[in-house]
Amino acid sequence: MRAESTFLAAYDPAGYPPVAVTVDIVVLTIRDGALHVLLVERAEHPYRGRSALPGGFVRDETLAEAARRELAEETGLCPGEAALARVHLEQLRTYGDPGRDPRMRVMSVAYLGFAPSLPDPRAGGDAATAGWVPVDEARELAFDHDTVLADGLERARAKLEYTPLGTAFLGAEFTIGELRAVYAAVWGEQLHAGNFHRKVLSVPGFVESTGGTTSRGGERGGPRARLYRAGDAALLHPALLRPTREEQVR
Amino acid sequence: MRAESTFLAAYDPAGYPPVAVTVDIVVLTIRDGALHVLLVERAEHPYRGRSALPGGFVRDETLAEAARRELAEETGLCPGEAALARVHLEQLRTYGDPGRDPRMRVMSVAYLGFAPSLPDPRAGGDAATAGWVPVDEARELAFDHDTVLADGLERARAKLEYTPLGTAFLGAEFTIGELRAVYAAVWGEQLHAGNFHRKVLSVPGFVESTGGTTSRGGERGGPRARLYRAGDAALLHPALLRPTREEQVR
DNA sequence: TGAGTAAGACTCAATCTGAGAATAACGAGA
DNA sequence: TCTCGTTATTCTCAGATTGAGTCTTACTCA
To answer: How confident is the model at residue A9 (pLDDT cuts 50, 70, 90)?
Structure first.
């Protein structure tokens, strides 16, 4: 009877080997036109000195709360800070293979975050060695974090297709060109400016005009651009599909 | 130093409240043209007598192995059985809010499964009270399983749009009409037969012809249909989108 | 002031989609 | 056996969408 063993085990955790639960966070942001991920340097064994995704043990809180708390600690932002509240966080998946942590069985619930430009993590505190790293240079991470990061990147690329979450990388007001730069950075390819513009404005609820414009043109010239804010759509319909990836389909 | 506390906690699990890890499975199949989910009746408190998703504690195995083992136990199929191997299983998400299980902190890693027609779970053994229930009638489940099921259904509906996993509900060979019936059951709406047929055959790698046909027409008449097997595509490109759901977008 | 850049509006052909209809093969009951 | 209802498969056609360019302007920087 499985149900019975469930009952007993629940009151006798020692009957099963101990398991620890952590959250690890893949927080992405865009800096200088390139996609960056927040990494910390491990101060202790195992993987001492290696880069790793920020994370920590789950306390008496929901998983989402644990993720947001860890994010606040690692970025050095106060929990109440506005910039932190604007970070989009969603659960990515759970990694729990035996042996992924050499010390004991650790289940890691990974979260994926989209952050607008944030300051460098402040020195001191938990995040002494945290920093933003271009995703192309984030390799050979501790534990199975290479896999977690890869899964997070793929999820992020897909999410930009059918949700308006690209706006989460930007401030409250943004131009279509800035939004296009987000897509280009996440997808790693240039997009046709005219078609992107047409598409974004044609999807209901993606963006809405603020009525204003930038106060000056771009750094290298060009006219002032109109400003938009995120619309009320939760899904893009029709979706904004990545350029042909037939090669990757099989 | 978070890294230090991590290190210590890992060697002293008693320093944190105990956590149990389970897998729960949303296995879907199609019977009589309607989408069904496998449920078990709980024999013990809490939620004694209520229906619940099948699941159990994770042992010294990967999460995916735990999910497949539980599936085998609850369906009463031998682990080596061919029908079981053809069930597609993927991780759905993890539910771990404090209080979701009144006994202790339980993290449940939910898996989503697509199964071809399987026999009724055999009586006796673990699955004494397991059975297939139409998803419309699966309500008021134990724990937070209503939410888990709802998340699983939404994931399944989305997966049919951009992956060929609809074929996982069918046998090794199937007709386009049977595949259309899968989509109709999962999406809960009728599809235009001609357009569906055109679309399925035009997406590269979705299905490939076996060269054969059914040995007789449909139960209510009609010509013999050509037989197909699943193709080698991992993603449908372009996707097979659900009929307008603009209402659900916001 | 001139060169270079970028926003935004258009154009156009190719493709895709939804809706409907036509054709033909079958099963079942009269 | 004949007729009718059902279903597989193919076609048609108009409308919407997409990718690739072009054009006009407004601006910045040197």
So the answer is: very low
Quick check: B10 and A101 CB within 8 A? yes
In angstroms, rounded to a whole number, what is the distance separating the alpha carbons of residues A74 and A219? 32
Give strand D nucleotides closer than 7 A to any protein Cβ.
5-12, 17-22, 25-29
The two tokens of residue A64 are 């989402």
Strands (E), chain B: 19-31, 34-41, 51-52, 55-57, 88-95, 105-114, 131-134, 207-213, 226-230
One-letter amino acid for residue B34 of the chain: A
Question: Cβ atoms within 10 A of the Cβ of A62, count?
Answer: 15
- Mean of pLDDT over chain A: 89
Determine the Cα–Cα distance for residues A50 and A42; give it in Å rounded to an integer: 6
Which A residues, 7 through 26, put their C-beta within 8 Å of a C-beta on chain B?
7, 9-11, 13, 16-22
pLDDT digits (tens, 9 = 90+) for A168-197: 999 999 999 999 999 999 999 999 999 999
CB distance B71 to B25 below 8 Å: yes
Task: Check whether A81 has a pLDDT greater than 80.
Answer: no
Q: Which domains does chain A have, with CATH numbers?
A: 18-143 (3.90.79.10), 163-248 (1.10.10.10)
B205 touches chain A (CB under 8 A): yes
Nearest 5°: phi and psi at B74? -75, -30
pLDDT at B129: 81
pLDDT tens, position by position, B164-201: 999 999 999 999 999 999 999 999 999 999 999 999 99
List the structure tokens of B120: 């009724």
The pair of three-digit structure tokens given for residue A113, joined into one six-digit string? 């975050």
* DSSP SS3 for B10: helix
Give the CA distances from residue B20 to residues A7, A18, B50, B74, B104, in Å, rounded to whole numbers and listed in that order. Answer: 12, 8, 21, 20, 8
